[in-house]
């Protein structure tokens, strides 16, 4: 996604690191660059607001549950694959669904 306007920090870079920003897992200098970008770019600011709302909803609904580290790693890995334009192997989805229904 890009708004078509030139920015010091490219829209794709901002969106690639959006969850790190939301989770406060990046250096202050990088966070400041992203905040500056949001001030200049309404499409990215809108995406940030949407992701922030989803994160709050998930926390409210599931905030009491501890997430196993291996599940978090799998989710992040799959998100990275999707962001890179790759597809998640079907056997991964099926095996995850089967495990969930057990």
Question: How many helices does DSSP assign?
Answer: 6
Query: Percent of residues in beta strands?
Result: under 5%
Helices and strands: which structural class?
A: mainly alpha
Q: Extract low-pLDDT stretches.
A: none
Give the tally of β-strands: 0
Radius of gyration: 16 Å
Q: Could you say which overall geometry the principal axes of the C-alpha atoms support?
A: globular
- Major beta sheet summary: none
Range of helix content: over 70%
Order of helices and strands: HHHHHH
Q: Can you give the mean pLDDT?
A: 81
Give the termini distance in whole angstroms. Answer: 39 Å
Can you put this structure into words, describing what you see?
By secondary structure, this protein is mainly α. 71% of the residues lie in helices and 0% in strands. It has six helices and no strands. The protein has helices at residues 11-16, 18-22, 28-40, 42-62, 69-83, 90-101. α3 packs across α4 (42-62). The longest helix has 21 residues, at 42-62. The radius of gyration is 16 Å and the shape is globular. The termini are far apart. 8% of the residues are buried. The mean pLDDT is 81.
């Amino acid at each position: 996604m890009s708004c078509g306007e030139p920015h010091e920090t490219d829209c794709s870079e901002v969106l690639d690191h959006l969850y790190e920003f939301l989770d406060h897992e990046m250096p202050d200098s990088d966070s400041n660059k992203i905040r500056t970008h949001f001030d200049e770019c309404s499409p990215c600011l809108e995406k940030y607001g949407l992701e922030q709302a989803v994160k709050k909803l998930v926390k409210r609904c599931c905030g009491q549950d501890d997430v196993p580290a291996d599940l978090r790693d799998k989710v992040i890995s799959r998100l990275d694959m999707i962001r890179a334009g790759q597809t998640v192997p079907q056997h991964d989805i099926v095996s995850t669904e089967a495990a969930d229904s057990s």
